[in-house]
């Protein structure tokens, strides 16, 4: 019994020794291969650098580089990646074309979809390094966008790097939104790339992020930023600002209307009018007497969207008496929406101001006010002013069916 146990023990120990010897032999073989690879890399490095440099200087013959890639693909790959950090503009574009032609970009795309995390990280990192090249971006297509959904934070970081190199509006939007979910360290790493696009990010992407956060401070900053945008960028952000119209009207918009310069008012007021929704601004009537007629015009347009407080109603009557025709017409249009019967005498006076367009607009509003409005128009039929009587006659024919002979 003891003899058998001893034999078994010796057999186990022998097997362990053989296993250790095998592992040692494999490690030595691997080390030998690595040493040989390093020696080959050192030996071929000068030729690789010279061949890549020759290509970048304008020689498009890839024969030597293809041969070197066959012999030492890793060294050629590392050489290309080393060059990209020192190049820019057309040289980096040419380097990207070389990586595509030698098959490295295709390999990196395959690596980026690998189940092996380290391989996947390496693939995305190398694509991001050369993503400034148009040739590389065409080949990787939407791979960086898909990489933003990867479970690994390093893959998401490299995907954002690749998107920022493309500099398209959609890519910037995606990269910025992804960066908001990164760890502080990853955000620090990508900050320099985001900084390059600061002006474009501030046009709409950053204000949209502020608006979506919903805090009062963020709304204030986003609204103030929107006032500096181009008209196209304001159009893009208007729908997001409109969602917060009630909160903006509590303090931010009244402050902007109260303290804004002429230029700020000429941005703020059209922005409010573009929302086309009811706004709880109790008193904006003071701007109806603003010295700039462009401001008065926008105020008249806005008055149909705000509560008809006494101050706002007086502002509309002020607009009817304004010296600027466009302001008059905007006030008439606002009254058409509000159907303010107290304004009928003022509308009637607009028929006698000598402007055909104003007379026809005012007559049209009076015609929609029912009996009192129609009687006011009938009172203008004997008027010797052909503009006033003509506008009244036209509307009466339309609303009361009065034949033209009866109106003559």
Description:
This protein has 408 residues and is an all-alpha fold. Among the domains are: 152 residues, Alpha Horseshoe (Leucine-rich Repeat Variant), CATH 1.25.10; 67 residues, no CATH class. Helix content is 75%, strand content 0%. Helix 6 runs parallel beside helix 9, helix 14 crosses helix 17 and helix 17 packs parallel to helix 18. The longest helix is centred in the N-terminal third of the chain and has 55 residues. It starts with a helix and ends with a helix. The C terminus is likely disordered.
Mean pLDDT: 80
Shape: elongated
Given as residue ranges, the uncertain stretches (5+ residues, pLDDT < 50) are 402-408
Radius of gyration: 38 Å
CATH topology-level fold name of the domain at 43-194? Leucine-rich Repeat Variant
| Biggest sheet details | none
- Percent helix range: over 70%
CATH architecture of the domain at 43-194: Alpha Horseshoe
Provide the β-strand percentage band: under 5%
The level-1 CATH class of the domain at 43-194: Mainly Alpha
- The beta-strand count equals 0
With helices defined by DSSP (H or I, 4 residues minimum), what is the helix count? 25
Topology:
Elements: H1 2-56, H2 63-71, H3 73-84, H4 89-101, H5 104-112, H6 117-129, H7 134-140, H8 143-147, H9 153-166, H10 169-179, H11 184-196, H12 198-213, H13 216-226, H14 231-243, H15 245-248, H16 252-259, H17 262-275, H18 293-302, H19 310-320, H20 325-338, H21 344-350, H22 356-367, H23 371-378, H24 386-400, H25 404-407
Helix pairs in contact: 1-3, 2-3, 3-4, 4-7, 5-6, 6-9, 9-10, 9-11, 10-12, 12-13, 12-14, 13-14, 14-17, 17-18, 18-20, 19-20, 20-22, 21-22, 22-23, 22-24
């Amino acid at each position: 019994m003891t003899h058998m146990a001893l034999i078994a023990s010796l057999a186990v120990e022998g097997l362990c020794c053989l296993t250790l010897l095998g592992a040692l032999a494999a490690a030595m073989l691997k080390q030998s291969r690595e040493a040989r690879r390093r020696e080959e890399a050192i030996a071929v490095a000068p030729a690789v650098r010279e061949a890549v440099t020759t290509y970048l200087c304008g020689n498009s013959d890839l024969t030597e580089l293809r041969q070197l890639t066959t012999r030492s693909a890793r060294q050629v790959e590392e050489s290309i990646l080393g060059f990209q950090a020192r190049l820019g503009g057309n040289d980096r574009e040419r380097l990207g074309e070389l990586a595509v032609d030698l098959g490295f970009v295709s390999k990196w795309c395959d690596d980026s979809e690998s189940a092996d995390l380290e391989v996947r990280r390496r693939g995305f990192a190398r694509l991001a390094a050369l993503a400034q090249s148009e040739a590389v971006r065409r080949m990787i297509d939407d791979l960086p966008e898909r990489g933003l959904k990867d479970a690994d934070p390093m893959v998401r970081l490299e995907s954002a790097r690749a998107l920022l190199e493309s500099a398209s509006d959609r890519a910037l939007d995606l990269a910025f939104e992804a960066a908001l979910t990164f760890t502080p360290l990853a955000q620090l790493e990508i900050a320099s790339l985001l900084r390059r696009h600061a002006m474009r990010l501030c046009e709409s992407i950053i204000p949209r992020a502020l608006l979506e956060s919903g805090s009062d401070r963020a709304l204030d900053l986003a609204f103030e930023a929107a006032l500096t945008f181009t008209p196209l960028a304001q159009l893009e952000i208007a729908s997001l600002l409109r969602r917060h119209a009630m909160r903006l009207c509590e303090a931010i918009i009244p402050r902007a209307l109260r303290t804004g310069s002429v230029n700020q008012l000429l941005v703020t007021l059209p922005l409010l009018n573009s929302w086309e929704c009811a706004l709880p601004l109790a008193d904006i009537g003071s701007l109806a007497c603003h010295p700039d007629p462009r401001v008065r015009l926008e105020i008249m347009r806005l008055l149909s969207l705000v509560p008809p407080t006494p101050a706002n109603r007086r502002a509309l009557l002020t607009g009817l008496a304004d010296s600027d025709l466009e302001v008059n017409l905007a006030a008439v249009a606002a009254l058409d929406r509000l159907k303010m019967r107290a304004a009928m005498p003022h509308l009637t006076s607009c028929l006698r101001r000598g402007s055909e367009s104003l007379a026809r607009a005012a007559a049209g509003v009076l015609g929609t006010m029912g009996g009192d409005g129609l009687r006011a128009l009938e009172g203008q039929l004997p008027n010797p002013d052909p503009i006033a009587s003509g506008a009244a006659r036209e509307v009466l024919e339309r609303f009361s069916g009065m034949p033209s002979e009866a109106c003559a």
